[in-house]
Specification:
This protein is α+β, with helices and mostly antiparallel strands. It has four helices and four strands; from the N terminus they run E-H-E-E-H-E-H-H. Strands 2-3-1-4 form a four-stranded antiparallel beta sheet, covered by helices on one side. The protein starts with a strand and ends with a helix. The C terminus is likely disordered.
Length: 117
């Protein structure tokens, strides 16, 4: 059985930003079994999924309004606070750390700036 993990998903429209980009992506991500996602920028998502990376980007690319987009999916199976840094809204860190039906979750204790907005 595939294991859930976090996937960073980057999307880049080839010829400009199509109007229905976010609704199309988010509708598809909402159909993933036991999946969850967080959009932190106009073209970037962190997704909690057990979907194979090839399957995930192939499915997204097959959505009619997304066929003219580039996709890059990278997975990170263990989030260690000593190996992740960034300035993100508190809401993101809460989402990242919330209980899920499968592990991994954030391990370790990040420094204070890690949690600042």
């Amino acid at each position: 059985m595939p294991r859930h993990r976090f996937v960073h998903l980057g999307i880049n429209p080839v010829n400009g930003l199509p109007t229905p980009l976010h609704p199309a992506i988010e509708t598809h991500l909402g159909t993933l079994p036991n999946g969850d996602w967080y959009r932190y920028a106009s073209q970037n998502y962190v997704v909690w999924t057990d979907r194979d990376l090839t399957e995930l980007v192939t499915e997204l690319h097959s959505v009619p309004t997304l066929g003219n987009c580039y996709f890059l999916a990278t997975e990170f199976s263990q989030i260690d606070a000593t190996k992740i840094q960034g300035w993100m809204p508190m809401e993101f860190w809460g989402w990242l750390n919330k209980p899920r039906s499968a592990t991994p979750l954030l391990t370790g204790v990040p420094s204070a700036p890690f949690f600042r907005r």
